[in-house]
Amino acid sequence: MVKAKLGPTFEEMLHPDKIDPAVRQRAVKALKESPLDPVNLYNITWRRADNRIKYEVLPKELTGVDAPIVALYGRDFPSGAHKVGAAYSVLAEELVFDRVDIDKHTVVWPSTGNYGIGGAWVGGRVGAKSIVVLPEGMSKERFEKIESYGATVIKTVGVESNVKEIYDKTWELRRDPNIRILNQFEVMGNYRFHYHVTGNTIVELAAELKAQGIGNGTIAAYCSAMGSAGTIAAGDRIKQAFPDHKIIGLEPIQCPTLYNNGYGGHDIQGIGDKHVTWIHNVLNMDAIMCIDDIECKKGLQALTDEAGQETLHRRYGVAAEKARALSTIFGISGVCNVLGAIKTAKHYQFGKQDVIVTICTDAIDRYHSVMADMARDYGAIDEARATAYVEAIFHGAKTDWIKDGTPDMRRQWHHLKYYTWVEQQGKTVEELDAQKDPEWWIKHQQLVPEMDARIKQARAQ
């Protein structure tokens, strides 16, 4: 029997300085020199080699608001996006409970991109055979990444919001007794990674920022678009540390499911999947805001094109080095998250001490083909176009398409889970109703030490 190669615990992903120093040193070296070496599992963290958190404070010249907006970025995770953390956590939990046997099981990663890429990478490092199911309309770079990691791809019809079609395919695959579905939208390993690792990283970031004269030592708000709703789970931890904290969910205007039961196709790849996921604690969310997918892609053009960077520097006074740094950390959903943070600052009238944190989930390497299409359809970036985009999209972000999380609205968001999870995916009404109790979520949060103990035990075998 082949033993799976397990990597870090949740606590080691949060604080990589707790990893065996020899292992940590090998991992840091391997990140660039040998990116497919399994030791790179120990690079699943929001921290750099020197253990400092990876983030950028966005310049006011870009955001147009007084409130500091800070973006953690996933570019330097082993697969190039933070979803690899959720993929590893989900598979690790299945392995330690013997629900997956890599000798005989093939693991399936239902995804619209980054989770599938992360799953393909993790599966290969752990020694598991992987299948990734994702819509055919995603960027070609996503498919290339998945296949480069040795996974099999199954394409389903549609675009980002066509998750129902992914689910239908996974139900077909389940008929094979040697298939195990690792559904990011349902399994709580995804939630736990972001609650413990992402959430606590942001809590600790608040003090680091204050030491630099940024904010007052708390986090006023956390903005995250929902795909699987793993990333937004960090807000549950942040709100425990800072009770006045606001958790803001983001959706595409083109598919406003929580906002008004809406539906439709869109191209903010990685978010807005036309249903409310099982792992989304909607009863703890303070507002839903909608963002235009075309504005996200135009904003990405302005940030990543050389002419856009030059415009930020010469016209708006952003340091050239800062403009270049920003160009390397953004993908489409990262721009969406920042636009949501700007709307949040305006909606709540936040000021200079009110830090808003968000996530840049991946980077431009996944979207060169999308940017080429944008240049063809809307025009290449020059100074005039970059200026227009900064003024209209970033500075001009409006406070429309916002609904606050009143008790009644939160109940509506929760009730929407019924149609996917009870009618289609085999959950019971009793299971759905159990999520109304905050203790349901707390019990899952408190399982992290048990998971860590099991991972350590498995590594020792």
Q: Radius of gyration from the CA trace?
A: 21 Å
Uncertain segments: none
Structural class: alpha/beta
**Which bin fits the share of residues in helices?**
40-55%
> Main β-sheet, in a few words?
7 strands, mixed
Provide mean pLDDT, rounded.
95
Please name the CATH topology of the domain at 55-79 and 189-404.
Rossmann fold
Beta-strand fraction estimate: 5-15%
So what's the overall shape? Answer: globular
User: What's the CATH architecture of the domain at 55-79 and 189-404?
Assistant: 3-Layer(aba) Sandwich
Keywords:
alpha/beta; Rossmann fold; 7-stranded mixed beta sheet; 4-stranded parallel beta sheet; 21 helices; 47% helix; globular
Please, could you describe this protein's structure?
The protein has 461 residues and is an alpha/beta fold. Among the domains are: 8-48, no CATH class; 55-79 and 189-404, Rossmann fold (3-Layer(aba) Sandwich), CATH 3.40.50.1100. It is 47% helix and 11% strand. The chain has helices at residues 10-14, 21-33, 60-63, 83-96, 114-126, 140-148, 163-173, 188-211, 234-241, 257-260, 293-304, 306-314, 320-327, 332-347, 368-378, 383-395, 407-415, 417-422, 429-434, 438-445, 448-460, and strands at 55-57, 69-73, 106-110, 129-135, 152-156, 179-181, 221-225, 246-252, 287-291, 356-360, 402-404. α11 (293-304) crosses α15 (368-378) and α12 runs antiparallel to α13 (320-327). It starts with 9 loop residues before the first helix and ends with a helix. The mean pLDDT is 95.
